Amino acid sequence: MLWAMLLLPVAAGIGFFTVHSSRALQREALDDLTAILRLQQQFVEHWTLERSADIGLLASDPRILTLPEPRLRAMFRTVLDESPAFNIIVYVDQDGRTRGDPKGPSGVDVSDRDYFKAARDGREFVSDVITSRLTGKREFIVSSPVRDGQGRFRGLIMGGVSTEALSTLMRTVQDETSGNAVLLRASGELLAPLDADGGLKPGDVLLDRATAREPSSGVYRNAQGERVVGTYLWCLDGRWLLAAERLETDVIRVHAGVLAVPLAGAALVFLVFGPALLRLARSLDAPLKQLEEHARQIEQGNFEVACPPLPVADAPEEVLRLDQAYRLMVARVRSALDALREASLTDALTGVGNRKRLFSEGPRLLDASLRGGRPTSVLMLDLDHFKLVNDAHGHAAGDAVLAAFAGLLRGLLRQSDLFARYGGEEFAVLAPNAGARQAVELAERIRQAVERLEVPVNGETLRFTVSIGAASLEPPATVHAQGAVAILEALLGRADEALYAAKATGRNRVECRSMASGSAPVL
Q1: CA 89/CA 56 separation, integer angstroms
Q2: What pTM was estimated for this model as a whole?
Q3: How do 455-457 and 376-383 pair as beta strands?
Q4: Mean pLDDT in the chain?
Q5: How far, rounded to the nearest angstrom, does the alpha carbon of residue 235 sit from its chain's CA centroid?
């Protein structure tokens, strides 16, 4: 009887603690799922905005309205090579018919599509996932209107983004705490990851709660009859649904090691180990609060905030493993973000910057040079008769020529120069602190070096020449931060005029066009 009286309160305490801990673990798992979904929501929305910005940048290129069909197709093919997230990029004219399709025939009528109607109304557009009329694939469309110099509607640039790209993005931020996290359409159709078990359908608890905008909390049974903890978040203004479920047994299993110590302490708390239990609770509480605070910073997009060391030296082994796993996850997320940023600014074939890097970093370099009272020059370079290389020797030979050309220029340019592939066989160089004379001298050195360059391809030696157009802006110039973009576009336009003059007068030449600071856009 005495033993029964002693064990009864211990058993009651253990039972109460077990029930209370299970509910606390469910709440913690729900909080973890919500934090993961918020991070994924930021990734999906930020990544989608970047794809829309890519299309907007392309739509602002004045050559869209002037290039003939073959060169327009080649330009889009180059952009597709640099941007694997896109299935297709085409120009749609003001009558709703495609032009410059790099993968199929032009002239497809898309005037009934929502993205054409939005562009005609002057709006950028991101569609739901559709079956493309051009590729036959499941993708979503981002589009941006094209206008001429007088601001009149002249069509649009549309890009089809593959659902495979969404899958890759979702896997970047998945880990064992993510549960079964999926991206769905509002109807419940699975979008990503494509290798997940499937989507949701009406009647599934989570989809019904999301459709009704009801909170998801506690444990419920999913469509397979399993007890799960689940939650959801809408993204892109309610167009897509992020949903995650985690088995209740997995939640308890993952935390079983952490629970074992408190349960053992609870059995002895009435006898001996009250103070020891208090010390244990403190050793768990401080590290977990610190990790929670850092996770909140990551959730808000502050990926560069360093995670401080654990505040206690004698933390349990489980907490040490949790801290190590968390730091590894953060490092992987940062690495993935850095890789995504660098890949979006680099030409995959040549390894030099692409047009996006030119317009991302160029205005800052130009602004700094002009504010310091120094001149700035731009070179536009185009390989002569490059189409003949592709036609006679194949695209692999053309790729080898482009890579050799880029490698040669990297050795000729200064470290301060910004070198980018502008499109196809066309390249651009932004040379801060270089006036017209230095720009022409640099261009002539490049022309002579290219003339001497030999590229071995399939047992043959290919030689080629380059035409170069240069444009320079001399100080003084007062430039507002937003005005640097307009000046760069004007310099590129003048250099492009000089390039075409060089081609028109025989190729393998250098032509220069100066641009007085008073003629540049100054804000």
Answers
A1: 12
A2: 0.52
A3: unpaired
A4: 81
A5: 16
